[in-house]
Design brief:
With 147 residues, the protein is mainly α. Helices cover 76% and strands 0% of the residues. Helix 1 runs antiparallel to helix 5 and helix 4 runs antiparallel to helix 5.
Length: 147
C-alpha cells in the first residue's frame, strides 16, 4: 500500500472531521443538538467511567477531541486504501457506513439505544447529517485534480 496515499487520506479525514465537529459544536451551543452531550465526550466519559477514572472536564474534552480527530483520520486513510479514486459518492457512502456503525455499536454501549431512540430519534437524523458532511468533504478533497 502506498504510504503517501494513506497519509493523504488521514490528513483529509482529519480536515473532514474538523468540519463536522464545528457543525456539531455549533449545534450544541445554539441548542439545536438533540444529543445530551457531544458524542466524543460521551464515549470518553463512558470509557473512563468503566475504568473508574475521573478527570476534569477540560481534560476529558481534550481527550475527546484527539480521539475524534484520530478516528476521522484513520477512517479517511481506510477509505483511501479501499478505493481509487475517492469520489463524493464514495465519500457519502463511507459516511453512511460509519454512521450505521455508530448507530448499532456505539450508541447502545453509551446507553442511548439503537439509533439513539432511548434519548430521541432526532439523534439518528442529526448524526446522519454530520456523517454526510464528513463523507462529502472527504470525497471532495481526497482525489481532487487526480484521475
Amino acid at each position: 500500500m502506498e504510504t503517501r496515499r494513506l497519509a493523504v487520506g488521514f490528513g483529509w479525514g482529519v480536515v473532514a472531521t474538523i468540519e463536522m465537529s464545528v457543525l456539531m459544536i455549533l449545534a450544541v451551543f445554539t441548542g439545536l443538538s438533540p444529543m445530551p452531550s457531544p458524542i466524543p465526550e460521551a464515549i470518553v466519559n463512558k470509557g473512563l467511567g468503566l475504568l473508574g477514572v475521573g478527570l476534569p472536564k477540560p481534560l476529558i474534552m481534550l481527550l475527546a477531541a484527539v480521539a475524534h480527530l484520530s478516528y476521522g483520520g484513520v477512517a479517511g486513510a481506510i477509505l483511501a486504501a479501499l478505493t481509487r479514486p475517492v469520489t463524493v459518492w464514495k465519500g457519502l457512502g463511507w459516511g453512511v457506513f460509519l454512521w450505521l456503525v455508530m448507530q448499532v455499536a456505539v450508541f447502545p454501549l453509551l446507553g442511548w439505544g439503537l439509533f439513539g431512540v432511548a434519548i430521541t430519534p432526532r439523534i439518528a437524523v442529526a448524526t446522519l447529517v454530520l456523517h454526510l458532511v464528513y463523507g462529502a468533504t472527504l470525497g471532495l478533497l481526497m482525489d481532487r485534480g487526480r484521475k
